[in-house]
Design brief:
The chain has 152 residues and is α+β, with helices and mostly antiparallel strands. It has four helices and six strands. It has helices at residues 17-33, 39-43, 63-75, 141-144, and strands spanning 46-53, 61-62, 83-96, 99-110, 116-127, 130-140. A six-stranded mixed β-sheet has the order 2-1-6-5-4-3.
Amino acid sequence: MPASPSRTAAARPGGAAADLTAVWSAITGMYAAYPTGDRERIDSFLDPDATIWDSATPGLVCGKAELDQVRDGRSTGGGGPVEAGLTAYDQVIDVFGELAVARYWLRVDYRAAAPELVRNTAILRRGEGGWLIVHLHEEDSAVAGGAVESEG
């Protein structure tokens, strides 16, 4: 996994421990639901109007209807590598009142291919039911041009 740059705690807004944990739980909960294919569970972590820069989709995905179109397009492929697991890690989270910004790595493991590392930024808002992702930006580390160490 990529090495974390040294961070000075005073340089980060950070947030209350309970908020930081809740934000990270929303993100990791979404990824935990992904391998099951349970769209309803995945969507419970997303604002219905969320926007997504998906690492495998050229345009901005706006809202649940467009996200479902992207998902439906993936399910018919069958030609790509089969995912074996997702691991989000190395998070940096800041809370600004009712908004949070989370930056983290996502490791995508495949059954018969090398893992892929994806840089992510998520913007979340605090709602009555907890934190919801309102924007997600994914960038394949190969596209980003960064040399990233992977866990071996």
